[in-house]
Structure prediction request, 807 residues.
Amino acid sequence: MTLFHMFLLFPCLKHAMRHKLQKVLAFMCLCLWWSTCIHVEAANDSLKPGDTLNLDTGPVYSKKGNYYLCFGWLDVGYNQYLFLSDINNNYVVWMSDRNQPVAGDSAVLSLNLSGVLKIEYQRGKPTILYSPPQPINNTKATLLDTGNFVLQQLHPNGTNTLLWQTFDYPMDTLIPTMKLGVNHKTGHHWLLVSSLTKTLVNSGAFSLEWEPVGQELIIRRRGKVCWKSGKLRNNRFENIPEDAQGVLKYSIVSNGDEETFSFTSTNENITHFWSLSDTGRLYYNDKEGYVATADLCYGYNTDGGCQRWQDIPKCRNPGDVFQKKTGYISYQNVSLEGNISYGFSDCKASCWSNCHCSAFRKMYSNGTGCIFFHRISAENYTFDSAGENFYLLENMLTNHKGTKKWIWIGAVAATALLAIFLFTICLAFKKRKFVFQGKKRQRMVMKMLHLATCSRSSAMKDFEVDLKKGNGLKLFNYTSIMAATNEFSTENKLGQGGFGPVYKGILPTGQEIAVKRLSKTSGQGIVEFKNELTLICELQHMNLVQLLGCCIDEEERILIYEYLPNKSLDFYLFDCTRGKLLDWKKRFKIIEGISQGLLYLHKYSRLKIIHRDLKASNILLDENMSPKISDFGMARIFTQESVANTNRIVGTHGYMSPEYMMEGVFSPKSDVYSFGVLLLEIVSGRRSLGCYGADRPLNLIGHTWELWKDGASSELVDPSINESFDSDEVQRCIHIGLLCVQHYADDRPTMSNIVSMLTNKSEIVPLPERPAFYVGRKIIHDELSSKGFCTESTIEITTSTIDMTDS
Ligand SMILES: *[C@@H]1O[C@H](CO)[C@@H](O)[C@H](O)[C@H]1NC(C)=O
Ligand SMILES: *[C@@H]1O[C@H](CO)[C@@H](O)[C@H](O)[C@H]1NC(C)=O
Ligand SMILES: *[C@@H]1O[C@H](CO)[C@@H](O)[C@H](O)[C@H]1NC(C)=O
Ligand SMILES: *[C@@H]1O[C@H](CO)[C@@H](O)[C@H](O)[C@H]1NC(C)=O
Ligand SMILES: *[C@@H]1O[C@H](CO)[C@@H](O)[C@H](O)[C@H]1NC(C)=O
Ligand SMILES: *[C@@H]1O[C@H](CO)[C@@H](O)[C@H](O)[C@H]1NC(C)=O
Ligand SMILES: *[C@@H]1O[C@H](CO)[C@@H](O)[C@H](O)[C@H]1NC(C)=O
Ligand SMILES: *[C@@H]1O[C@H](CO)[C@@H](O)[C@H](O)[C@H]1NC(C)=O
Ligand SMILES: *[C@@H]1O[C@H](CO)[C@@H](O)[C@H](O)[C@H]1NC(C)=O
Prediction:
């Protein structure tokens, strides 16, 4: 249990109280209140028969006040546990059940008159922690200064019998006098088990155990020994760095009853602890250094106590190492492991054992599940500090050739090891710094959110939950945004988005940003702000615009994005001169990029998302004219049913699918429809709502369909594309475009079909059915807007909201 988990904002407050406080008090008051609470209530260290502990009574503190036991929240999530922690919240010593949070606010820990220690709930079965064979009434449960919560039977002659203790059920942290090993009489094993991920306390893959035969400590990953400390000699373990065991005194018990290991410190003023991390690293004193690095123990590695794996596949070589990368990687050939019991190390081991797999990353934002990338190399990866984290297999010992092969290998290995060593040291330092900054930032986010909550806006009250992951989000202060945008001057204005103006800004660091300021008057703004913020935080893909952060200041709600110098697609597409800048190659690249971005949204992002407002003006272009989908203000998460119904229809005329426009039904296929329209616009350089056709007015879709039927679809191609182009590719695009705009959603292809049809020339493309809005479109459009649709193609296309509840 590391500090990371222990972001205890208000661990032992009553839930209702917590909410009330959130509403009325600013963060500062909270801090004051909380610290007062600690000092005032530090009175009782024990429970007598009939006593209870719940949110109202507050924690039980040890006599010295160095440990406490209470019901509370371990992170900013809503899961509540009964846990025992040190007073500085550095580690958790014990938890009632890490895999099963206690339900609701009504949980009560009680020691009843029969000597039963249990957690009761308003509803449901109680959790029995200890129940004596016969009822006994002379018991007492005490939280000792060692961090052990013990239940004892008190005899009239003055002696006590130990009935139950939390030290028998460790989490992932070993503290002085806590045991590892086995009790031969009861068969009880004492071992540490790591957490599943950095943010989930559920049992994970690694365990730290005492191995009595070899007299050594071992770490297992999913049952297989991956690290050994070496035999204990002269109070020292061979494979544990000296600074991690400096002041420790080990004691070994080995008799018929039990074989155990424990340590004490020769300096009583410091509490030493060893914590097993989710990746298999055993830290001492909250990341001051490490006792063991089992995270590096896979495959051939035998350094520092690592155990070579038995079943190494032939395709893996010595020196193959997964390196952490940040940036973007092609999602072309991936496979998924949706098992939510899979953490980082499980993904790593699976990837290593599968010869096709060359990189992996987590699937869900809580760190569980895996995405495996097949046949990928460093060439398929682009560095970007704002990108996703993933792990790419690289060989650290390449270039071994010639007759003096072994010398070379030795030299390279030595260098690599030195490099790894230095790298690890750097990393250790960097990590410490990072952890610190991370915590600080998280606090800042919380502080900001509390201020936001206090600013009377009810729409903000769920913010805390939605933003708890905080994914790399930066908080900007209002003055710096004012300075960056020249006080929102009109020269800096880039345009008007659906819910407010967008400005260009330059940070003091020189970084250019795009600043979207939500209209204060727009009541919807807040909802869209929150929506965009929470959704886009989760999304990272090279074809999606990157959110850098936000700014909340009194009534101001501001979103800050990366700045893209080349404006949006419509700026080029619908202009005869600028259209010439987009040759067919560029256009095809844009089409591919958009399809990749959408595929990611629909399929590979953690939250499956429908964009709902895909159009040319929402496609931004970077300096290489690569497309990035923007504006997630209207995006929605979709669930298994993948079809949702809404009363509020938002979208842009010309891009909305018929089922959405007429019935309010949306699904990923609505995005596919919009994509189809966009595709035809890119090929033709014309707006979908324009007037085309020689003898009768047709929209772009109708016009395309007529040409297609007559086998004359090449006439559709934008005359601005004056050089030669791949007419096969153009035909394919028009064909796919028509498939996308088919009337029935079920007929339309999925984004994965589209991506493979676009990239794979031999893929069989089915023939399209007659498209939607081919006839009758005029009526629909006239109903929606009093503007005549059949004007010149310069018609102003805006986002419209139709409230179905009114009709
Ligand atoms: C704490 O101890 C005092 C006096 O010993 C007692 O009156 C009180 O009920 C105890 N509180 C709890 C929660 O056990
Ligand atoms: C104590 O709890 C146990 C288990 O819930 C129950 O069987 C027993 O009757 C209780 N004793 C008293 C005195 O309430
Ligand atoms: C505890 O139980 C004993 C018998 O087992 C009984 O004599 C005594 O009165 C009980 N004490 C209380 C406080 O209930
Ligand atoms: C005290 O009493 C208990 C139970 O009555 C007994 O098991 C224990 O041996 C006694 N201890 C001493 C020192 O007499
Ligand atoms: C522990 O702290 C006490 C009081 O602060 C001090 O007198 C003592 O020397 C310290 N012991 C060690 C080993 O540092
Ligand atoms: C994708 O990966 C699988 C192995 O899982 C492989 O069989 C297949 O050929 C790969 N496809 C491409 C296009 O690389
Ligand atoms: C998920 O993974 C865990 C741990 O490896 C395994 O025990 C469990 O059987 C898996 N579940 C499924 C449904 O594959
Ligand atoms: C982690 O996230 C996944 C997907 O959201 C969810 O199904 C799973 O229950 C989460 N795991 C835990 C332990 O909360
Ligand atoms: C990776 O890059 C190579 C070389 O650029 C390319 O041939 C290959 O298709 C790419 N693989 C994937 C899965 O994108």
Observations:
- The first strand starts at residue 46 and ends at 47.
